Amino acid sequence: MSDDSQPRMTRIQKRNRELILEGALTVFAAHGFRGATIDQIAEASGLSKPNVLYYFDSKDEIHRTLLSAQLDMWLAPLRRIDPQGDPLEEILRYVRAKLEMSRDYPRESRLFAHEVIQGAPHLSDILGGHLRELVDATVAIFRQWSDAGRLAPVDPHHLIFSIWALTQHYADFDTQVRAVLGPGHDPLAEAGAFLENLYRRMLSV
Length: 205
Fold this sequence. Notes:
The chain has helices spanning 11-35, 38-45, 49-55, 59-79, 87-104, 106-117, 124-147, 156-172, 174-181, 187-203. By secondary structure, it is mainly alpha-helical. The chain has two domains: 11-57, Homeodomain-like (Arc Repressor Mutant, subunit A, Orthogonal Bundle), CATH 1.10.10.60; 64-203, Tetracycline Repressor, domain 2 (Orthogonal Bundle). GO terms for molecular function: DNA-binding transcription factor activity; transcription cis-regulatory region binding. Pfam families: TetR_C_3, TetR_N. This is Transcriptional regulator, TetR family.
């Protein structure tokens, strides 16, 4: 049913496919690819195992479908950086978008983290291809801004890595963050203020 040559899916078929992907996201985020099973995905989706395998040929296909969708969403804010915009505001907008994604899509972030920790067996071609091309294009924009004196000198690659690390941490290590801060804190609101101050100080000219 996942082949594009198949007939258009009915409303019920679309709903069942969405249920499977939603259930699989919960299972993969908790257990990683190796620890997840079709039985667990079926239980989490509220469907039978044969029903799951009707829509997807294997656990691998479900995993790839989720990763592809997550990576597209994850990269969207990077694509929206405007070379003609104000450098500092464009970067801060990207930081805010990434922090909002950690708030709104924590399971997706953990799914991606599990994949990378395992050596990215399902994403190695994308990470070294499409992702690298997009990062290279963004790096070129940052270098142009620095060369023009519109942005403080900074290593563009490590600037991007730092944004990923400092924003995704709040999704991937949410339990640790909340345990250390204790009650009465809003981790992401506090992080937003801290990161805005950090990058303004680092990048302003």
